[in-house]
Amino acid sequence: MKLNVMNALRHPGEIFDFEKDISIESAGGYETVGPLHISLQYTYDQSKVTVFGSANIDIKGCCDRCLKDAIVKLEFDFQEYFYKQENKPNEDAYTFDKNFVDLEEPINNHIELYAPMKLLCSESCKGLCKICGHDLNESDCDHVIKD
Predict the structure, then answer these.
(1) What does the pLDDT read at residue 30?
(2) Neighbour tally for 101: CB within 10 Å
(3) What is the mean pLDDT of residues 91-111?
């Protein structure tokens, strides 16, 4: 996911827009369903390129309760700084190469950050019986205590 920032480098201080749907198979350790939609702005201030905007994507995984497929929509805002290699303020800072910033690592980091701790197929998922493994969303089993 490389973003060409040549316009910003040629015109420091100006803000440029970018919006795109990007097809990716996986992100942040998750399988994706549909494209990553990204809408951002970027600018250059003689020392760094600042990229800020929002993104959304559907991720797919296994429901933590019933083990069926779970699809979760993630929406997040972000702001990242990209420095020339020689101006890098610390070891972990992102850099840009010539006219491009690579958004893959920061976007993957945000997906990992915003993904839920537990993926659920639905908030009301009852899960599996702890004794026999029956899917309690389909019906109760003999091991379920009824009120």
Answers:
(1) 84
(2) 22
(3) 91
pTM score of the predicted model = 0.80
Structure-block tokens of residue 52: 């800020």
Report the distance separating Cα 68 and Cα 100, nearest Å: 40
Q: Which of these, 144, 75, 62, lies nearest to 111 by C-alpha position?
A: 75
> Phi and psi at residue 52, in whole multiples of 5°?
-140, 145
Q: What is the pLDDT of residue 1?
A: 84
DSSP states of the chain as a string?
A: -EEE-HHHHHSTT--EEEEEEE--SEETTEEEEEEEEEEEEEEE-SSEEEEEEEEEEEEEEE-TTT-SEEEEEEEEEEEEEEE-GGG-SSTT-EEEETTEEE-HHHHHHHHHHHS-SS--S-TT---B-TTT--BTTT---TTSPP-
Q: How far apart are CA 140 and CA 129, in angstroms?
A: 9
Pick 144 or 12 by higher pLDDT.
Answer: 12
Return d(Cα 24, Cα 41) in angstroms, integer: 21
Residue 118 above 70 pLDDT? yes
